[in-house]
Write a structure and sequence with these properties.
Layout lengths: L1 E6 L12 H10 L3 E6 L4 E5 L8 H13 L5 E5 H10 L10 E8 L20 E5 L2 E7 L20 E5 H16 L1
Antiparallel strand pairs: 1-3, 1-4, 2-3, 5-7, 5-8, 6-7
Helix pairs in contact: 1-2, 3-4
Length: 182
Amino acid sequence: MIYVALLRGINVGGKNKIDMKLLKQTFERVGMTSVVTYINSGNIVFTDHQFSENELPFILEKAIEEDFGLRINVVIRSFNNFKKVIASLPESWKNDKLMKSDVLFLWDDIDDETVLEELVIKSDIDTVKYIDGAILWSVDRNNVTKSGMQRLVGSKVYKQMTIRNVNTTRKIYELMQAVEKE
């Protein structure tokens, strides 16, 4: 099965530094194969045929703690789940000079449409959509400072998600497709 591990809070502001080459070795040490990392923010595509999707976060979090001495939360998404995320992302959404578009990958604890009730969403500025396992959020760059997304950081729900911009999300999907073709 093809998966992506999304690590929360590594290599941000000089904290929780993890070298991606060493992280790849950690994944291989615990039995993951076809391991590919993408940028320093903790995106690791891999295959595994030993463990269930529910077991993988615990195995990988433990391995990261053993190898790096860091307690890092890991969100796992299967290739099929990621396909659904990509299919739900409007093609027009970008992360560029004109638009900021993100995918907020949710911990299982808060993975329910009711999570939207805990967010500050300004319907005249923000475009927000819940899908299984994630929230899709987009705003015009000239409205970012007015967006409800600004209030997300520091909230209770913020600590139970990891965020990737749509460009990174699409690149991860391409990497998963490449592993599938191997």
